[in-house]
């Protein structure tokens, strides 16, 4: 119980800044994806708490997060804080969401986007939730501008790529990453493996497929676990050294939200790097 009271006390003692305007809702966010949306679109004074994973590195572009209380992931501290809106998604615990609803709290449950159009709609919806549709429109414009830059970079060279992650997982054409790559004009080799949403591929299958580049989520020569070690296998590194790998950090694509513009700009920069 002490930690629940501590969180509530932290909210009451939040330093600095005026109270939110009377017509703007006070918010808490239940997961890292809604954290990204709330941090980008809401006023700091509106945010009463972020998810328990908000400081684990996913939000490295969000600035100083120490001003915001970290929630437990359960219902108790949210009930103590009493926000106007709880921003959540279908991936948050159903029992927690149902309890919050039963206690009279308003939940805004955002769907997980599978395409760029759905990502735009999610940003638009989050703008309405936070009371800042103008900021949402600006984020969508930023996304569209980044997409145009990526398409221009892709049009100069028609590459065939394979989106590959830990343990040999390949994102298929029906996955969000596959959809994102297709929007830029890149050709995914995942279909040649028979993958729609995705699947695991062996080293032999990947090398035999011979895509122009691998699309990976991180660079470097150190693996933290066996899953990452797959990407550093000598056979794979022989055919796909850093010059043959396009790096788009996972945190930019995992949620499909306001960081997608950054993901597309990262892709554009990587295409210029590998095309030299």
Low-pLDDT stretches are 1-9, 11-17
| Largest beta-sheet characterization | 6 strands, mixed
**What is the strand tally?**
10
The assigned CATH architecture of the largest domain is 3-Layer(aba) Sandwich
CATH-assigned fold name of the largest domain: Rossmann fold
- Tell me the name of the CATH homologous superfamily of the largest domain: Nitrogenase molybdenum iron protein domain
Q: Report the CATH C-level class of the largest domain.
A: Alpha Beta
Q: Any idea how many domains?
A: 2
Radius of gyration: 21 Å
Could you say which structural class the secondary elements and strand pairing correspond to?
Answer: alpha/beta
Instruction: List the total number of helices.
Output: 11
Q: Give the overall shape, derived from the CA principal axes.
A: elongated
First-to-last CA distance: 58 Å
- Order of H and E elements: HEHEHEHEHHEEHEEHEHHEH
Structural features, described:
Residues 1-9 and 11-17 have low confidence and may be disordered. Helix 5 (116-130) packs antiparallel against helix 6 and helix 6 packs parallel to helix 11. The protein is elongated, with a radius of gyration of 21 Å. The chain has helices spanning 2-12, 32-41, 76-81, 94-102, 116-130, 133-155, 176-184, 203-209, 226-229, 234-239, 260-274, and strands at 27-29, 47-49, 85-89, 106-110, 160-165, 169-171, 187-188, 198-200, 213-216, 245-247. It folds into 2 domains: 2-110, Nitrogenase molybdenum iron protein domain (Rossmann fold); 138-274, 3-Layer(aba) Sandwich (Rossmann fold), CATH 3.40.50. It contains 11 helices and 10 strands. By secondary structure, the chain is of the alpha/beta class. Helix 2 (32-41) links the parallel strand 1 and strand 2 (47-49). Strands 5, 6, 7, 8, 9 and 10 form a 6-stranded mixed beta sheet that branches.
